[in-house]
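Service request form, structural biology core

Requester: graduate student, group of Dr. S.
Request type: structure prediction, single chain
Budget code: on file
Notes: please return the result as structure tokens.

Sequence provided:
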Amino acid sequence: QRVIEDTKMMMNEHLDVAKKKKGLKVSIRNKEMTKGGKGGLLMPPKVVLNRPPAQAPTQVCRFPTDDDHSQQVDNASTVSFADFGSTASVDTGILESTQEYGTKSNIAKVDGNLTPFVAKHDNLPLPVPPKENTSQLPASDAEKHENTASLESKHGSFSLSMPSDERDLKKHRLATISVQESCLISEEIRKSAAAALIRGPPATRHFGGNRGGLYLDPGSSNVGNICICGSEKTVIFSPGASSPGKTYPIGASGAIISDQVNDTEYLCCFLATDKRIVVFDLKSKIVVVELQMTTKLNFWRFLPPATHGDTLVFMLITPIGGFHWMPLEESPRPRQIWRRGRDLQGKKIVSYEEGGSNGKVGPDRRSTMALVMTSTAASGDPVEAWCLSLSSGFSPFCASQDVIGAALFNASTSKMDTVEPNVVLVTPGDRGNNAKVVICKLKTNHDTHRIEIDEIVAQVEISQFPEVSVAAPAMAMGEAAPAFCLCCQNFVVVILRNEGFFVAYQFEDNDLYLIDEKNFGRYVVDAAIKTHQESDEIDVVLLLCDSESVKDGRIVTITISK
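Core staff response, request fulfilled:
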């Protein structure tokens, strides 16, 4: 007589074969394990998350709606929390488990506080998403006059002419650069994790985005860590760290992470199943706050504390507009700071940054200007650069209807200064292998209630860069601007992504002086710039695709020495 264990083993063994052969799905009931239910399968264990007694209870807040007159939010007719930076809904399938994870499971629900967990430095395998054909936005085919860059605006247009004697770039001999490349990312973490890291997080940039329009304390980090999520774990990749890959037992559809704030980092996770955003304190291992969403999320990122009250700030962009979310505040509901309006309605957000200062410190500190790069749903359409006033409520101003890159630029040396940042525009040139870099001074005209370009501060031409584009990977965020424009102190860096071309300038006496150029010949996934931790040097951090595989890459650090 067979024992019950042998019988169970044989039944399961034959059922597995039948399911593979006939496509059946059969479950075995176990009367000994079924009590009072119709089904014979065990329910998954409930997640009980307990906060240490000394901590305050988790706050649960709701996204502002029309009923909240103080927020002045437009009617949010949709309750779907998708559209993660693309025209289609978020595909949670790319975050599902693979055989390395085991069976597919729902994204973990967080109904209370986070049970203490331990960060691991092991190599976490992540699913490799399906390959997609992603092409970068080409430069405009519109005819342009020689030596002239035209900046069109819905509020008017103007042109700037570059005299022929300025076509020769001016060399600046007081600064030099050095380049250091890391090993392949797949040698630091598993290949599947490296491929997911190259693909990147949804609805945001890998390194978080530009910060050059703000005054930041020397030594502050401007290079955000990269978060890659699965259904059971989240990987946080820190460029340049001795142990770059940390894993946390937090399942999510997407995540972004803050800098060090109050001696800790905060992980902001989107849970697609529950339509919630949850913020975790990675040092105390607790849930700080939960946000129930009632609208779509088009773009999100961490903002430096200098943008709003010297506290933790996350930017949430929805079909309604832009919201500052301060999870550490006593009333942590998102605050609307600008509306999309007719000009920005329905457009895809390519990048977002804030700059300027109201001259105050502490809780009253605020940024004054935002730069939004947008595109339409159609592939190949030009990228637009929009400036938004955060203090006056003026209508969005289109600084250019055809840019390949843009950034805010603040060369202020004191956080007590009340300044409006300049905007740097990188526009297509009149030939296929050139571009123009223009620094424009912005002003808010209170008579016309508009933002205007006051004057052209400096301009220079990038000429004779490689015309051949290198292979580009599939990106979770979709199409982005063809160039990165990075600003830090008085340095301006332009990186042409498709060509792998790097050029650095120093801004002095209202002029741009060339420091150096580099041709890496590899696709640039993302880039960021920061002040050096131990000296007055500037570091430009690049995430480059590998020359042999677009699913792998390297971290390249370019140091600019004054």
